[in-house]
Structures are given as structure tokens and as C-alpha cells.
Description:
Elements: H1 5-11, H2 25-34, E1 39-41, H3 46-49, H4 61-73, E2 86-88, E3 95-100, E4 106-111, E5 116-120, E6 126-130, E7 137-142, E8 148-153, E9 157-162, E10 167-173, E11 177-182, E12 188-193, E13 197-202, E14 208-213, E15 219-225, E16 230-235, E17 240-244, E18 249-254, E19 265-271, E20 276-281, E21 285-290, E22 296-301, H5 311-316, H6 321-331, E23 333-338, E24 344-349, E25 353-358, E26 363-369, E27 374-380, E28 383-388, E29 392-397, E30 403-408
Antiparallel strand pairs: 1-2, 3-4, 4-5, 5-6, 7-8, 8-9, 9-10, 11-12, 12-13, 13-14, 15-16, 16-17, 17-18, 19-20, 20-21, 21-22, 23-24, 24-25, 25-26, 27-28, 28-29, 29-30
Amino acid sequence: MDLNDSNMRENSKKPGDSTSQHGNENEENEIHDEIEDEIEIIEMNDEDVLDAEMDDMGLDEDENDNNEEEDDDDDEEEIECDPFLLKLEGHTGAIFCLDVSANNSLIATGSEDDTAMVFHSQNAEIVLKCQGHKDSVTCVRFSHDSQYLATGDLSGLIKVWKMASKEEIWSFELSDLEWLQWHPKGLVLFAGTVDGQVWMWKGPQFVETKTMQGPNAACSAAVLVNQDRCLCCGYGDGSLRIWDLKSAAVAHSLTDRHHAHEGQVNCIDCSTEFNLIATGGLDGIVELVQSNNGKFITKLDCRPRGGEGSSQQQRREGEDEEDAEERENKNSIESVALASRLPLLAVGTLAGELLVWDCHTTMLRHRFSNEAGVVKLLWLDHWIFTAGLDGCVRVFDGRSGSLLKKLQCHSKEILDFRLIG
């Protein structure tokens, strides 16, 4: 299952909707039935789970092999989930996104049921139910001070809620929404749309507005860089632009075919310490760029073994459109994350691989194959947490590449996750 926003649009269609954008209805209904509509909070004990020096922490290769063989022998057996701390319930459809407030007291979720919900992180009590959206809520973001929550749906309707009074204070409608995020130091809200625009509003009145028009392609991913004075945006045509927020003008760009991705930019991350931007694309390539001057550094090939070569060239050699699309989806990079204190880059692919690159030498240090696609990954010190389409969260040591822990969190796909605390 491709987790790009275009496919989430498919999953958000209601039964009987005849305006599906991709595939046939039967396939969409099967995908819809497979998606979990619950969230679980799993307690991670530092001594028992995250200490790489303790032997009883990890699953060695033999244990993994045995578990895989047992799963193959009894595929029909119901998957038993590991113990969890809390279960957040209330949505009636798939949960596409979540966020945790800066003070760790609140958890927000966005769902296919056209609502967002806010839960208390200690007791799972529903604090606020955000209603009034027109389509699946695919973006939920708390402001830096935890005082406001922004929610956005696929149709482009954005709402801002004040947590103290638990009421909607502002709304705005634009074209189909790709992403939504706050400035980490002030009450400034950003949004990217399918028509390539980036919007910026200044709160708390949200009257002052700026727009930054990109190419005729979706603005699919973004991250703040250069002491949060610039916004780096990736687009559906594979290009990259770094916008100066004060002037709303392009400071740097990578748009030529030698430096741009061959397909959509799916994800972006940055490292303040190393002045580095990493972008992951549908083409299975990661690009490294200097954030302070926009200089292109290199491309890292993250496609599965045996999948090297230009996707355009392979298609010309007789590959039909359906096979090409399936292969490109497998190449797709779903998440990139730069470590905060280490010169390491973690990459998660839809083919189910976790790759760890050395940013100084641009050499591949570790490659680990999972049973299913990696949806998202996050660093915590030198540990890497990954979430997958097999419903598992895995914990790796980013230095050694070893698997420390595998948590069976759900029987269905995990579409998003956060670390609390």
C-alpha cells in the first residue's frame, strides 16, 4: 500500500463513491477493510528496551528466523499484540495522522471519519472532538506552546482550535491539502497544497497571510531550515526550493534533471548541527543538500538490491504501465530522518528496508530488511524507531544496525506514530 497522500485520498472515499482516483473499487474496499482505526500507547522502559548493552533486550537473527518460520506455518492464527499502556478509542474510521503536544499531555488524531480528536495522554479521556470537516482529516498539529491545534482535511479545509476554551477560532479553505505544520518558535502556520502553493498565516488572528507559488506540481513535503528562517519544500515534479520566509522569495532551488528527483519528493528532514537537508523520493533516491547555501552534495541510491537503473529506461525496454507502477511504489522512500547528534541518516522504504548512511562519507553502513514496508521512522539518541505496514514497531541501534526490539502493536497497518516523553 502506497502511503502518499494520493492514496490516502483513495482510502478516504465513502462506500458507494464513484469518483475514486486510482484502481478499482474492489481493491479500495479491501484496503479500507485492512486499516486499523485504533491507537495504542506502548510503555517503553529505558532499562529493558533501549539499552543496547543488555543481551536480553534484542531479538537475535536466529530468533527472528524461527519466528518467521512459525508465522509461515500458521498464517491464519490471530496476531497477539504486545502489552500496551493505553488504547485511544472513539473514531469510526481509519486513523491517518497523530500529534503530541509539546507538554506531552495531549494527543491529537485525524481520521477517515472526517473528525479529529484530542485525548489526554494519561487516561485516554477524550478532551475535544473537532467536527465540521468535509473530508478525511489527514493533518493534525499542535502549536509550539501547546495552546492551539491545527487540523486539515483532504479537501483543503483548515481549522484552528484553542485548547483552553476547546473551541474553533479560525478556518480557511484552499485547494487539496498536502501537509500542515507550525513554526517551532512562534504562532505561524504553514500549509502546502496540491497546486504547488505554500501558505503562511500569522496568529493569533491569522489575518496576515503570505503565499509562495511553486511549480505546477504538488508541494508534497516541507521542513524549516536555517534557524527556522527558511522553508525547504519538495514538489511532485521532483524539484526542491528553499523559501526565505521574510521576503517569500526563493533563496535556493534544485530544479534541473541532474539534481532533481525523477518523481515526487515524499519526505524531507534537516539537521541544524550539520547544516544538512535530506530528501526522499518516489524514485528510491535520497538527495543530500547543504541547507545554508542550497548546494547539492550527492544522491544515495536506496532502491532494493537488483533494482538499480533508471526507471524511465526500464519502462522503455518493454515494461508495461502496471508493472512499472508496482516497481516504482516498491522503490518509494516513505521516511528520512537525520540523527540529532550523530552524522547518520536513516531511510525507510516501502520495500521494507531500513538503511543507515554515514553523512560524512556518504557510505551505506547498515541495511536491514523488514517483513513489510516502513511507513515512518524516528531517532531517539542513537536508537531508531520504525513503524511498518505489518503493524509492528521495531527498535534498532543506529550505530551497529542491530535489531533490539520488535513490538507487535497492531494486527493491521500503522500509518503514523510519535514518541512521548
